[in-house]
Amino acid sequence: MTSSPLLEVSGLVARYGKARVLDGLDLTVNRGETVAILGRNGAGKSTLMKCIIGLITEKTGSIRFNGAEIATLPPYKVSRAGIGYVPEERRIFTELTVRENLEVGRLRGRSNTRWPLDRIIEIFPNLKRLLDRPGAQMSGGEQQMVTMARTLLTGPDLILLDEPSEGLAPVIVDQMAGMIRDMQASGLSILISEQNMRFASKISQRAYLLERGEIKFSGPMQTIATNQELYHAHLAV
Amino acid sequence: MSLGLFLAQALTGLASAATLFLVSVGLSLVFGITRVVNFAHGAFFMVGAYVGYTLTNYFAASDALSYWLCVVAAAVIVGAIGMAVELLLMRRMYKVPELFQLLATFAVSLLIDDILPIIFGPEDLLAPRVRSLRGGIDLFGARMPVYDLYMIAAAAIVLLLLYIAITRTRWGVLIRAATQDRDMVGALGVNQAWLFTGVFTLGVFLAGLAGALQLGRTSANLGMGTSAITEAFVVVVIGGMGSVTGALVAAILIGELSALGVAYFPQLNLVLMFLIMAAVLAVRPSGLFGKPEALTRQHEFSDEPPLRAISRPLAFAAIALLALLTIAPAVLGTYGLSVVVDVMIAIVFAGSLYLILGPGGLVTFGHACYFGVGAYAVALGIRYAGLSFASALVLAPLAASLFALAFGWLSVRVSGVYFAMLTFALAQIVWSVVFQWYDVTGGDNGLIGLWPTSLSPLVFYFVTLALTAGSIAILGWIPHSALGYALRVTRDSPARAAAIGIDVRLVRLFAFVIASLFAGLAGGLSAFAKGSVFPTAISIGRSIDGLVMVLMGGVESIAGPVVGAAMFYLMQTEILRYTDRWRLVLGVLIILIVLVFPKGVVGSISQRLRGEESR
User: Fold this and answer.
1) Do B186 and A74 touch (CB under 8 A)?
2) Relative to the CA of B500, which of A132, A223, B431, B556 has its CA 20 to 30 Å away?
């Protein structure tokens, strides 16, 4: 089974009303791999993430994870199957403290040996002094840390990062690249959507170019990062 | 008033506040997490009183301990009923438009309203007296019922436990998180379904507890559910939905002001409640502790097709119907004509509601208020001012639109479920005033003998026909007018409407007043048609009838309420022939409509005809 991909999306179609946002999308993520979805605003990146985690139910096609079909599962079952979701808007519970935010993600019952809180604080050392802060009083970078940590506490094998660099200062983005490498080092697989090519190329092995709900190109990150033609056709604003 | 008497009043107020808090906090918590306003909450409160009565009687609870055990057991039983309702019904309801959620929970309360008298009979039931709980204690020279102190203590204990559960437990963390963003909680691996079931059960348990606790103060009676839900709505509207603190503060505010109001101006008690609500909403539309609502799309019939001009076949059908009705008196006898008149009145009422509900996208649960005001305007005008038929009929829509101006000014400050709750509470306040003001309105004896001797039934028939045809033409045209465009924009995207310079509140108020004007006209006609007016003209039952009519027909065009009203009226008449358990039938019918035909009967059929795939 180890040869089969961890995540296998095939023929995924998603609609908002009558508009097709994803139009027959195929994509795979292998174990231990970091894969980038690159595309402009409105290309369908966030929709893809929401389809995988199960927040969008009006979709057709197949989503297989660890060999099992998950396309029809509700979000909490997808999460328990081992997929973590870090949304673009971060969606911190602003009424809760950081500690309580983490508590929502903390798994009960099933022990989360790979991502105990100590390990997470090693990756995000700043979290320690934030624990009792209200969720509403944080900078963008701090919010991004909390939301990643919260998701890691659910003990995922694959994590979906939806435009994590959006709205962050370049220096924070660089720090984040370091944190993501730490996560990769523990064997976590990552599907990341980005518009920031520089950042994406630092951390991903493969990439898909998404435009108007269709994959226009896929291949090693290296190829896309160095191909000016592809960049201008599908990414440049 | 002495200090002692004042204190005694204040404590009595606090005891009422205890009940208000227990009922409202459950309603508020359930809404916070599920976004469903549970109209059946008051009915569960009533069930709590009846179950408590049964238990205290069965176990002959004569000492304090067994009494309290019975009260808690009653709350547990009601909580279990609530859990069953959540699992069987509510669960299927979280994704449907909010109007249907409100209607479905209202249907549950209809079922309870009709089932309770079958089991317990129609009389008020008094629980056995427990000596040690019935005494009074002296307080600065005034006597204070000791049971009130127990009520206050019970509410304080619940408040404390609730506070601990919400701030100190994982369950509380999940509830607070889900109140803010339930999708994200699900994406983090939490099964929301059980969270919803848990909170719903807790809320109903608290309502049952409050109901059972009432037995020490009053009898179990069939009116207590509706008054409890009305007061609970007022409390959560003032306090802010989803806020425990808000429920507490507003409950104390209302409890105290009512108690002191009863002492100082007993006639103005209900008006006082209205004034408090108006004052709070004028300053803080989302309540004292509520968060401002996001200006998102409220209307949820999201795949409604663009509005089309009246189609040719439909226009022919309308003309044919009109011609048929014009020659009808040649065929129909007096009884037949009166049936047609009743149906036409129902059509005008449903048509006016359609304007608010369809193009306006606002869910009102108090539309009967304006029907009733129209009807009472006619009755009072004839009784006290000797008005003629024509001038009384002009007065009806005028009076209704004046009320709509005042109440609408308040109501359009909010939208969504708040609008539903507020319109409901305002209508109930008017109903209570009419019901209690015997000297002028005759209370539940109503006002009778209104038929002007000079009026012939045939003339009245044609007047009604002309007014109905005119009203429906205008109500059908408005959505295509400038006002209608503005109104639909405020429905589909209030934020964008505001950004292009549309005064959202003003447009809504305008539509609300126009709709109420026609409702008032329908009410005025009905006063003549029946020759009498009763408080039921204003009751929540009539508002719900209107909603069901529109839903049966569909909200997509004026044809919906016309067909729906006729269907509803004929069905009601037929069913009432066989059984007087009308509410039971209506409750089941509503639940079926919501589950099977979420777009209304006409809407669902026309959608199928257009061959669109359903969701």
Assistant:
1) yes
2) B556
- The ipTM assigned to this model is 0.92
Domains of chain A: 7-234 (3.40.50.300)
**Contacts made by residues B402-407, CB under 8 angstroms, sequence distance 24+:** B403/B369, B403/B370, B403/B373, B403/B430, B403/B516, B404/B370, B404/B512, B404/B513, B404/B515, B404/B516, B404/B517, B405/B509, B405/B513, B407/B366, B407/B369
Nearest neighbour of B191 by CB, restricted to A53, A76, A151: A76
Q: How close B296 comes to chain A (CA, Å)?
A: 17
Domain end among B253, B283, B298: B253
Closest Cα of chain A to B476: distance in Å?
27
Distance from CA of B32 to the nearest CA of A (A): 13
A-B interface: how many C-beta pairs under 8 angstroms? 66
Q: Which domain holds residue B347?
A: 312-581
> Is residue B89 within a helix (H) or strand (E), and if so which, with residue range?
none
| Yes or no, beta carbons of B184 and A79 under 8 Å apart | no
pLDDT in tens, B1-59: 677 778 888 888 999 999 999 999 999 999 888 888 898 999 999 999 999 999 999 98
Region B392-402 average pLDDT = 96
Verify whether the Cβ–Cβ distance A96 to B615 is below 8 Å. Answer: no
Q: Measure CB to CB from residue A55 to each of B176, B187, B302 and give the nearest one.
A: B187
Instruction: Domain count for chain B, please give it.
Output: 2
Instruction: Give residue B189's pLDDT band: very low, low, confident or very high (50, 70, 90).
Output: very high
CB A221 within 8 A of CB A207: yes
Q: Given CB atoms, is B173 within the 8 Å cutoff of chain A?
A: yes
